[in-house]
């Protein structure tokens, strides 16, 4: 193909691309405009969050274990008197 035809074809393709892309809003939509886009495959909105079920009330706290009272220490044994030494 001659160079002149390639140059003309390249200029024509660039001009058509520029005209088409100049009419499309950046980022999807303009301010306050409804969504009327030619290509919106990448502008898919995520599905809404499912509503969370109400949490069940927490179970009642377990009662504290009852402490057993400590046994009282045994009273000390009465001291036995020492036997007197036997007289010879």
Automatic annotation (TrEMBL):
Q: Which portions of the chain have biased composition (kind: Pro residues)? A: 45-63, 72-88
Q: Where is this region: Disordered?
A: 25-88
Q: What is this protein called?
A: DUF3108 domain-containing protein
Q: What is the lineage of its organism?
A: Bacteria, Pseudomonadati, Pseudomonadota, Betaproteobacteria, Burkholderiales
């Amino acid at each position: 193909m001659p160079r002149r035809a390639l140059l003309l074809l390249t200029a024509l393709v660039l001009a058509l691309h520029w005209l088409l892309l100049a009419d499309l809003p950046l980022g999807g939509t303009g301010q306050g405009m409804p969504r009327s886009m030619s290509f919106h495959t990448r502008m898919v909105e995520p599905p809404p969050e499912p509503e969370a079920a109400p949490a069940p009330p927490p179970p009642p706290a377990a009662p504290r274990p009852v402490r057993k009272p400590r046994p009282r220490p045994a009273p000390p044994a009465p001291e036995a008197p020492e036997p007197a030494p036997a007289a010879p």
